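Q: Second attempt. The first request was missing the SMILES, so the protein and zinc ion are both included now.
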Amino acid sequence: MRDTGQRNRKTTLDADKRRYTQIFKYFTSCLFCVHLWLIFIIFLSLSAGCAGVVPQPEKKPPPIPKVEEKKPPEEISKERKSEDYVVIIASPSNTYESLSEKYYGSKNLSYIISEFNQNQPITPNKEIIVPLKSLNPGGLYPEGYLTIPILCYHQFGKSKSKDKMVVSEEMFDKQMAYLKENNYNVITLREFFDFVSYKRRPPKNSIVITIDDGWKNAKVIAAPILKKYGFKATLFIYTDLIKPSKITLTWDDIKEMINEGVIDAQSHSRTHPDLTKTKDNESETAYNQRLEKEIGESQKIIEQRLGIKPTFLAYPFGTFNDASIEILKKYQYEGAFTVIKGGNPFFYNNFSLNRSMVFNSEKIEDFIKLLETFKKEQL
Ligand SMILES: [Zn+2]
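A: Got both inputs this time. The predicted holo structure:
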């Protein structure tokens, strides 16, 4: 029994041994496999590392997974239209600018829609009315009418000057800051003229800036300040003044400012005479010929030099008569400006429009007095 027990035990031990041997073999074969895999991986890495040495065909970047394009929200969800108005239910993407672009072809006219809707912010599903015809182009209201002041500057100085025609850099900056802070809209002469021609009303609180003659400080002092506030001005030049010199503008200076979008150039005659005065013993014919020279030739020279035909003139010294208006019309000028203080309602004569001179003053109040943009009057 004892022998049988020992034999059985030995058999069990042998079986165990065989099992362990099999497990060991299996384990080592697995290890071998792992080694093979490691070697394979190292080989792959080395190949990749050498790829820079051996020129390879350029790999195309993997295609960007396509994200299904989200359609922008519908610009306008509902629209009702008549001959004079469009009524829309605003979508989230609508702004006064986007509606102005859509219905008028320009963002610059957004004030028309904004003012018509009481300047209320556009919110989704809000009803917005877009006028399709020029409404109230003359700016007439039951309590009064719009009037547009045109500021007239001449020269600018780095410091305070005794000359009343020279506004200091510091004061000009202060004046422009005042316009900005008090929401004045500096419009171009063309926009102003659309108003006095009864075509289109500009935004309320509109004002025009003009600079006369053609002095260098218009470029050196005024232009950077205008740019700083995003304003534009009209330069009325008398063409004989424009020449290479330290104190006057050159044609290149003017072109540079036009290209920067800070000015546009119009005529201020050729030699800056008082257009109403005849010379001693000057015949009527000779006087008219001289007027043609001042008005017609200055226009031609500006067109030749700048490529833009001026159609507005600032009378030298602000003086004018019937003869000068006649010549202006002959040369297709659209309007002309005096230096008579005050704003311009739409019904003023286009050949005797007001401009208010800005003199050298240390008081901002003197400047503010020139800024009346609405004339109260019960109509
Ligand atoms: Zn002048």
